Amino acid sequence: MTRILLLGGTTEASALARTLAEADADAVFSYAGRTAKPVSQPLPTRVGGFGGAEGLAAYLGDEGITHVVDATHPFAAQMSTNAVQACTTAGVALCGYERPPWQAGAGDEWLHATSIDAAVDALPDSPARVFLAIGKQNLSQFAVKPQHHYLLRLVDQPDAPLPLPQTMVEIARGPFDVAGDTSLMQRHAITHVVAKNAGGTGAHAKLTAARNLNLPVIMIGRPELSAKAGQRPVLGSVEEVMAWLSHRSD
Ligand code: NAP
């Protein structure tokens, strides 16, 4: 019997959930619980952390999970590392479902940053107007450059004071389009864009808008998983995941 745990929080996870539901698969969808109103899923859904790798290993055993699909965001490195450890402990099959990173094309002016702190360093010292398109985590690292105006795009209204003195907050949930992102950046007279290299289509529009407006993008590279975590198969489409599930269930 196949019973699947789908670690979600991305557009890809939601697409896979639809396909699993259509296939009548026995699957549970898991959210970290970062947003107040997560997108509802056509699968039984649980919300909240498992309690580290040990907690996840116990959950896998208690729930009779046979396969885990890690479709978390490419920057959710802790969850991915925990999934590798827990699946090894529990003897459960694991794959990653990940979109490829974005690549700069002709006309793009990207500065590559290897970490959030490197992105902070890459911002100028003179006051700028920055579209800080990195979600709500890691904002406090930009507090060392309070001279900038920061445009934040968040899913929920912040429930605590923001760690940056000059902010403009746009509440919106993707996918976004080029016309909308161009107009947003023009309205706020943006001079710099900071982005995480998430990949995928839902958040790509800001990069095309930046290119059209000749704005530099500080692109933060993906965190490296531990060498062990790197050993899981990483698949790139719903079809590949479905094939992996059926192959691993034979
Ligand atoms: P993270 O740093 O890798 O995870 C921190 C902890 O959150 C994990 O150790 C785990 O807690 C819990 N967690 C994460 N994903 C979970 C899931 N799908 N189900 C249950 N628990 C989960 O991850 P993060 O960067 O905070 O991201 C949290 C979620 O937001 C992820 O599901 C991710 O797909 C989504 N997201 C992240 C980003 C980003 O830029 N990081 C952007 C968009 C969406 P325990 O150790 O207690 O199990």
Structural write-up:
The chain is α/β, with parallel strands linked by helices. The protein folds into 2 domains: 4-100 and 224-249, 3-Layer(aba) Sandwich (Rossmann fold), CATH 3.40.50; 110-220, 3-Layer(aba) Sandwich (Rossmann fold), CATH 3.40.50.720. The chain has helices at residues 11-22, 52-63, 77-90, 116-122, 178-187, 205-212, 238-248; strands spanning 4-7, 27-31, 45-47, 67-70, 93-97, 110-113, 129-133, 149-154, 167-171, 192-196, 217-220, 234-235. The longest helix is centred in the middle third of the chain and has 14 residues, at 77-90.
**What is the average per-residue confidence, as pLDDT, rounded to a whole number?**
95
**Which ligands are bound?**
NADP nicotinamide-adenine-dinucleotide phosphate
Give the CATH superfamily of the largest domain.
NAD(P)-binding Rossmann-like Domain
So how many helices? 7
Query: CATH top level of the largest domain?
Result: Alpha Beta
Question: Key terms for this structure?
Answer:
Rossmann fold, 12 strands, 30% helix, binds NADP nicotinamide-adenine-dinucleotide phosphate, 21% strand, 6-stranded parallel beta sheet, alpha/beta, 250 residues, 2 domains
Secondary-structure map with pairings?
Elements (H helix, E strand, L loop, with lengths): L3 E4 L3 H12 L4 E5 L13 E3 L4 H12 L3 E4 L6 H14 L2 E5 L12 E4 L2 H7 L6 E5 L15 E6 L12 E5 L6 H10 L4 E5 L8 H8 L4 E4 L13 E2 L2 H11 L2
Parallel strand pairs: 1-2, 1-4, 2-3, 4-5, 5-12, 6-11, 7-8, 7-10, 8-9, 10-11
The chain binds NADP nicotinamide-adenine-dinucleotide phosphate (NAP).
NADP nicotinamide-adenine-dinucleotide phosphate (NAP) binds next to strand 2, helix 2 and helix 3.
